[in-house]
Amino acid sequence: MPELPEVETIVRQCRPRLVGRRIAAFNSAWPRGCRPSVAHVRRNIVGRLVHAVSRRGKFIVLELDDGGHLLIHLRMSGRFEWLDGGNGRPRHVRAAWGLDDGNRLLFCDARKFGRITYTRDLAGATADLGPEPLERCFTAARLGHLLRHRRRQLKPLLLDQTVIAGLGNIYTDEALFRAGLHPLTRSDTLRPAQIRRLHQAIRSVLRLAIRNHGTTLDWIYPGGWMQRRLMVYGRTGEPCRRCRTAIVALRVGQRGTHICPKCQRRGEE
Ligand SMILES: [Zn+2]
After folding, report:
1. Is it the case that residue 190 has pLDDT exceeding 70?
2. Is 155 a catalytic residue?
3. Is residue 3 annotated as part of the catalytic site, yes or no?
4. Angle formed by the axes of helices 192-211 and 4-18, to 10°?
5. Same domain, 44 and 69
6. Is 81 one of the catalytic residues?
7. DSSP E strands: which ranges in 57-199?
């Protein structure tokens, strides 16, 4: 599933092709994927100029010239494809935007968990999302506040989009390793130095991943190089890059979780 760095990469790639373009057509043969409905989305976006393309958590956000917004969540297997002749006939097309320059942007999604939502109230539509971890206001003090007021294990807490927006399974595991923290550690037991390390680890791993255009593990998200820089995620049985101990896979709240059992001990500094 694409996480913050992958969604940020997609946003940066499609921004120059979308901003300033007028939406000439919208079609979807996938009623469940469009909120509130395909007809409502079409009625409200066709004829509008794309003013800006940005990201909020794992959502791609298209801001239209009349103040409306289109939120696109890729979920498990969603991806954008441009239909410009070179890529044959993409599979699993669920929705298509026609632009005034003749280009067509396709939303392809094999597993159909993706969502396209039109809203006139962006703040309301994203009210449940926690802070953006790369924004300036996301300080170590703010993270400390979020951790102390919840008595939860670190891994499920960091995955919770209402606590921090944008982290998923890959970057949660990577941040916890870089901070030297075990994923089952309870959030209200962290010492100030550990909170500062976790804060630093979250931000640095996300920045590194964006510089590497995200992580490519399968055909769903192509073009990233971050998989070469991962320390624990997907490396079960391989030696830790710091101490050579074999990386171990655990299940934490139904999620596959990767740790170095030596570098990430429970209840230790
Ligand atoms: Zn290690």
Report:
1. yes
2. no
3. yes
4. 40
5. yes
6. no
7. 59-64, 69-73, 78-83, 93-99, 104-109, 115-119
**Per-residue pLDDT reduced to its tens digit, 60-116:** 999 999 999 999 999 999 999 998 766 677 889 999 999 999 999 999 999 999 999
Q: In terms of residue numbers, what domain contains 188?
A: 140-259
Domain assignment present for residue 197? The answer is yes
**Interval between CA 244 and ligand 1 midpoint (Å):** 6
Reported as a pLDDT band with limits 50, 70 and 90, residue 266 is: confident
pTM: 0.96
| Residue 167 maps to a domain | yes
Does the residue 269 lie in any domain? no
* 16 and 118 inside one domain: yes
- Which of the pair, 110 or 200, is modelled with greater confidence? 200
* Alpha carbon distance, N-terminus to C-terminus of the chain: 31
Q: Answer yes or no: do 101 and 149 share one domain.
A: no
Please report where in the chains the tokens 């996480």 appear, as a residue.
3
Catalytic residue among 48, 58, 178, 197: 58
- Catalytic, 156? Answer no
Active-site residue, from 203, 255, 261, 265 = 255
State the distance from the centre of ligand 1 to the C-alpha of 243, rounded, in angstroms: 4
User: Structure tokens of 267?
Assistant: 């209840």
Between the alpha carbon of residue 47 and those of residues 41, 42, 43, 125, the distances in Å are 12, 9, 9, 23
Give me the number of domains the chain comprises.
2
